[in-house]
Amino acid sequence: MRHIFVLNPAAGKGNKLSSFEEKIHAIAKEKKISYEIYHTGNVGDASRFVREYCLRDKEALRFYACGGDGTLSEVIGGAVGFENAEVAVVPIGTGNDFVRSLGKNEDFLDVAAQMDAKAQPFDVIRRNDKYCINMINIGFDGEVAARASEAKRHVPGALAYICGVIGEFFKMSTAKFRCVIDGVDMGERTVQLSLYANGGFCGGGFYAAPYADLHDGLMDVCFIRPVSRLELIRLIGSYRKGTYLLPEKNSKYFEYYKCSEITLTFEKPQRICIDGEIEVCDSLHLSVVPDGVRMVLPEGVKSSYEKIPESSHVKTLV
After folding, report:
1. Whole-number Å distance between alpha carbons of 223 and 256
2. Beta bridge mates, 223
3. Are 296 and 114 in contact (CB under 8 A)?
4. I want to staple 277 with a disulfide (CB 3.0 to 4.6 A). Which of 70, 102, 154, 285 is the partner?
5. Tens digits of per-residue pLDDT, 137-169?
6. What is the pLDDT averaged over residues 287-295?
């Protein structure tokens, strides 16, 4: 097997990044494995590199996505469809929400353990002609991510996210679209926020999709209707904990579905956040690809988050 480390230079700086690469060289030398390190360039470069590598090399390949959720999403996008490709995640970015559904960050920072671990199939979400591994956010939290991305040019990551929250809190953006879920026309929706999830977490630890399962062949969809700033403040704590689906009094604000396919047609070009990265589109078609990618899971890794009790608000249409 050949081990390829796809490293996003924006994920670390100076000595931190250099020391990480030194660790890779040392471990690979000790284990006497075939390996290489690739530094990504612009957006989309990781997907292009991985796909081209898989097309020309038929041996067993293990790609290590070294960065945040965006880097992981791109690497997976390049690996989907190739039986000889596996993906490991090394969360050294500023946003590492995907691994929260599996375990702790430190569980995945042990490169030697990642090399020795076995791969298993995980679902992915196909979005138009690309892929998503964790979550798509539209509306309030998607706009927060977009604002934070812009703010990162001037301030550190954590502070940038706070700036994004403050800016969006005063604007309270909504999104309007027509949606079809598993072939059922649901009509128009105006939402404060909505999510389309394979994994459970977004925004640096918000348990926004508490019933998401990376192996069930379904995506979780939540629409939260427009609310006042006061109601948003009241709901935000339970949204972060994943318990917002439990209190009966909250049900007037949201709809929560499990489905295999959804199509959104937006009233106007809409900013969306896909695994932490921002795009603009007129329409969005999402479908689950069951067992779409083989991912490495270090032995003994287990999520520390408690399961949220079942809720009668979770619906399926077929």
Report:
1. 7
2. 194, 255
3. yes
4. 70
5. 998 888 888 887 777 777 766 677 777 788 888
6. 97
Q: Could you give phi then psi for residue 73, rounded to 5 degrees?
A: -60, -40
Measured distance CA(143)–CA(273) in Å, rounded: 8
> In this structure, which amino acid lies at residue 80?
V
Q: How far apart are CA 141 and CA 143, in angstroms?
A: 5
Q: Tell me how far apart the alpha carbons of residues 190 and 95 are, in angstroms, rounded to a whole number.
A: 28
Whole-prediction pTM value?
0.91
3-class DSSP state of 20? helix
Biggest distance spanned by C-alpha atoms of the chain: 59
The set of residues, in sequence order, having a beta carbon less than 8 Å from that of 267 and lying 6+ positions away, is 176, 177
* Among 286, 306, 239, 311, CA closest to 100: 306
Query: Which runs of E-coded beta strand occur in the chain?
Result: 2-7, 34-39, 61-67, 85-91, 119-127, 130-132, 135-139, 175-181, 184-191, 193-197, 219-224, 254-259, 261-274, 277-296, 314-315
Q: What tokens appear for 39 in the block? A: 């530094």
User: Do 196 and 286 meet the contact criterion of CB atoms below 8 Å apart?
Assistant: yes
